[in-house]
Amino acid sequence: MSTGELLTRATIWIVIAAYAAGTITFALSRGRAKWDSTARLFWTVACTLLLAHVASAFYFYHAWSHQAAYRDTARQTDEVVGINWGGGLYVNYALLILWTIDVVWWWWVGLEAYRNRARIISVVWHGFLIFIVFNATVVFVDGFARWAGLLICVAICAAWLHSRSKSRDAAA
């Protein structure tokens, strides 16, 4: 495995691990400041390393060419789902922008204000993230990576479901 391939693969798996740790911690913390602070740190690390992953992929695989990245995304999408479409690259760009905004917002408004934002924002945002992670770790990979990705996605969903059940129990 080349240095570029190792760097690109390692950064994305660290992103996924930090994302999972951050979102599970946030889901289970129920507003405890220390837990929320830890979740925010994982969240920030994940976002920062996602930027490093994209830079690595563009440098080592696409020679800093958007067109090359688009063609490669289209090829991979065609191989997996039978549609020669590179639009997933724009979904990844949106992820980068939105996650960066989310991290900056979390640091700007603070732990309590972030936790108390409109529920629909959290539901849509985390739904989008789990959709991206599921596709990246289950749909577009195979072998051990697929099983690891599935386990991560199940753990995240279980944490959110557990969090919801605890919220309902507290309200009753």
Structure, explained:
The chain has helices at about 5-30, 35-60, 65-80, 90-110, 110-115, 120-140, 145-170. By secondary structure, it is mainly α. It has one domain (about 5-170).
| Estimated structural class | mainly alpha
Gyration radius from CA atoms, angstroms: 17 Å
Biggest sheet features: none
Beta-strand percentage? under 5%
Shape label: globular
Counted by DSSP, the helix tally is: 7
pLDDT under 50 segments (min length 5)? none
Average predicted local confidence, pLDDT: 94
Number of domains: 1
Write out key terms for the chains shown:
172 residues, mainly alpha, 7 helices, globular
Q: In terms of topology, how is this protein built?
A:
Layout: H1 3-29, H2 33-60, H3 66-81, H4 88-109, H5 111-115, H6 119-139, H7 144-171
Helix pairs in contact: 1-2, 1-7, 2-4, 6-7
